[in-house]
Amino acid sequence: MRIIGGQFKGRRFNPPAKNWPTRPTTDFAKEGLFNIIENNFDIEDLKVLDLFGGTGSHSYEFISRGCTDVTYVDKFGGCIAFVKKTAETLDIKKYIRIQRGDVFKFIERTPFQYDYIFAGPPYPLPTIPIIPDLIFKNKLLTETGWFVLEHNPNHNFEEHDNFFQVRNYGKTIFSFFRL
């Protein structure tokens, strides 16, 4: 895993892969996604939510590019420990709130709204189709915010009321939603 842009560009991290429930986004897909984000937002001004945060790859990428308000959520203890250690190594602890817990409970309980929400759930998760509805039902997006859901070709969200575009990077697909 590497950070592909910003202050920490080129930094590599090797999370312990043994028995990890993660599937980090490929550098190719992440680079494409961040090109889109940088062409549509001032990253420094965003309040970001990283759901199913895994290795923290998206969180580090935002912070590396100047974002100072990132919330990371995952329930796997190994991921939480890895992200805490990496945040310390990069000296970015003041920019990232690390929340250990169930993503679905977090969505229901958080009182905050975000400018950009990314969700990279495990592909076999049976509840992937309800995630966009939960984001909008619980009003997690700001008026101009985007929600991006990473998924595989087994899902299609083009009929969702809030869907506005899709980007395909092989078996990695990003569906984009907004109000």
What topology does this entry show?
Blueprint: H1 27-40, E1 48-51, H2 57-64, E2 70-74, H3 77-90, E3 96-100, H4 103-109, E4 114-119, H5 131-137, E5 141-151, E6 163-169, E7 172-178
Parallel strand pairs: 1-2, 1-4, 2-3, 4-5
Antiparallel strand pairs: 5-7, 6-7
Can you walk me through this structure?
The protein is an alpha/beta fold and 179 residues long. It has a domain at 47-170: Rossmann fold, CATH 3.40.50. The chain contains five helices and seven strands; from the N terminus they run H-E-H-E-H-E-H-E-H-E-E-E. The chain has helices at residues 27-40, 57-64, 77-90, 103-109, 131-137, and strands spanning 48-51, 70-74, 96-100, 114-119, 141-151, 163-169, 172-178. Strands 3-2-1-4-5-7-6 form a seven-stranded mixed β-sheet, with helices on both faces. It starts with 26 loop residues before the first helix and ends with a strand. The mean pLDDT is 94.
Strand content: 25-35%
- Mean pLDDT level: 94
CATH class of one domain: Alpha Beta
* Number of β-strand runs: 7
Count of discrete alpha- or pi-helical segments spanning 4 or more residues: 5
The major β-sheet equals:
7 strands, mixed
Helix content: 25-40%
CATH architecture of one domain: 3-Layer(aba) Sandwich
Quote the distance from N terminus to C terminus: 32 Å
Order of helices and strands: HEHEHEHEHEEE
Q: Trace the largest sheet across and list its strands.
A: 3-2-1-4-5-7-6
Shape: globular
